[in-house]
Write a structure and sequence with these properties.
Layout (H helix, E strand, L loop, with lengths): L1 E10 L2 E7 L1 H6 L5 E5 L7 E4 L2 E3 L4 E7 L3 H7 L6 E2 L1 E6 L10 E7 L2 H14 L3 E8 L8 H5 L4 E6 L6 E2 L2 H9 L7 E5 L2 H14 L2 E5 L15 E4 L2 E4 H4 L2 E3 L5 H7 L4 H15 L9
Parallel strand pairs: 9-10, 9-13, 10-11, 11-12, 13-14
Antiparallel strand pairs: 1-2, 1-7, 2-6, 3-4, 3-8, 5-6, 14-17, 15-16
Helix pairs in contact: 5-6
Length: 284
C-alpha cells in the first residue's frame, strides 16, 4: 500500500498527489511513468511521474478525473492509501544539450512535460514552454514552469487567459521568429500532438511526443499499447513512451484509442450510480 502524503486540487477535475514510494523516487527520471491500481479488481492506469523527492521518498502524480478509475483516485484523501504503484517504467526522456528547445503541453499533459522542461533547462538548454488549456481555470503549473526558468506562453481555446487560440499558433510564431529551434517536445491530447507534429514537419524540426495510449501491464506482455512508428509496430510502454512525432501513425492510434470507449462509458456510469446509491440494475 502506498500512502498519500499530500493532496492538492489544481483545477476543476485536476488533482496533484504526493505519494510515498521511496524506491521509485530514487530511480525515477524525466519521462518515466508508473502503473497505478487504486483497489482490488480495479484496472491499471499509467500516470507519468511529474516530480519526485528522493529525500522524502515521495513521487508526484497529477491526475485528471475523466473515467471511473481516475475519479476514484481523485476521491482519495490525504492519509489514505493506493493499492499498487509500480515503476518507474518506460524509457526516460533523452536529455542532452540541444540549444533552443520548445516544450508544448496541452491540458494535463503539462504535468508530464514539467520534469522534461526542468531537465532540459538543467542540461543548459534555452527552454520555451507553451501551456495550452480550454480555459483559464484549467491552466496548470504555470508558476512552476516560469520558475525553471523558461520563457512561458499560455494559450486558451476560449481566450479567457493568455493568448486566444491553440498551442500551434504560438509555436508557429516561435518557429518563424528567427531564433532557431533545435527540438520540440509535445505532450497532450492526441489531436494536439498530431497538429504539433504536422506543423514542425514542414520546418524540419525534430519533434518528440509522448504516447500514453491504452496500457494494461506496462511491461509489453499484453500488447495493448501497440503503435505504428515509421511503418513498424512498437509498444508504447517498453519502446516509448516517447517517439518521433513525424513517424507516428496518429490516424491509426486515435482509432485504436477509442477501442474501449463504450466499456469506459459503462464503467463510469456504474460508478456514478454507485455514488448515488443506485444498483447496477438501474444502469442501462
Amino acid at each position: 500500500m502506498y500512502r498519500i502524503v499530500r493532496k492538492q486540487v489544481l483545477a476543476p477535475t485536476i488533482t496533484r498527489f504526493e505519494i510515498e514510494a521511496p524506491f521509485i523516487a530514487k530511480k525515477r527520471k524525466a519521462g518515466n511513468f508508473v502503473m497505478i491500481r487504486v483497489e482490488n479488481h480495479g484496472e491499471r492506469i499509467p500516470l507519468t511521474i511529474a516530480d519526485g523527492d528522493p529525500a522524502r521518498g515521495t513521487i508526484t502524480l497529477i491526475v485528471q478525473a475523466i473515467g471511473k478509475t481516475t475519479k476514484l483516485l481523485c476521491s482519495k484523501e490525504q492519509g489514505e492509501e493506493v493499492l499498487d504503484v509500480v515503476g518507474p517504467l518506460g524509457n526516460p526522456t533523452p536529455i542532452e544539450h540541444i540549444g533552443h528547445v520548445v516544450c508544448v503541453g496541452g491540458g494535463v499533459g503539462t504535468a508530464e512535460l514539467y520534469p522534461i522542461a526542468k531537465a532540459l533547462c538543467d542540461a543548459g538548454n534555452t527552454v520555451s514552454t507553451i501551456i495550452g488549456a480550454r480555459s483559464h481555470d484549467l491552466v496548470i503549473l504555470e508558476h512552476e514552469m516560469r520558475a525553471i526558468p523558461s520563457t512561458t506562453y499560455v494559450t486558451t481555446d476560449d481566450g479567457s487567459y493568455g493568448r486566444r487560440g491553440f498551442v500551434t499558433d504560438q509555436l508557429k510564431d516561435i518557429l518563424d521568429s528567427g531564433n532557431p529551434v533545435g527540438a520540440v517536445f509535445a505532450i497532450g491530447p492526441l489531436p494536439m500532438m498530431k497538429a504539433v507534429s504536422d506543423l514542425t514537419r514542414s520546418y524540419k524540426v525534430h519533434t518528440l511526443v509522448s504516447l500514453n495510449t491504452i496500457m494494461v501491464d506496462g511491461t509489453g506482455m499484453c500488447g495493448g499499447c501497440r503503435v505504428t512508428i515509421g511503418g513498424e509496430m512498437k509498444f508504447a510502454c517498453v519502446d516509448g513512451p516517447e517517439f518521433d512525432g513525424h513517424k507516428v501513425d496518429f490516424t491509426e492510434l486515435m482509432m485504436r484509442n477509442r477501442t474501449y470507449v463504450d466499456m469506459e462509458r459503462i464503467a463510469d456510469e456504474r460508478y456514478r450510480c454507485q455514488l448515488a446509491g443506485l444498483t447496477q440494475e438501474n444502469v442501462q
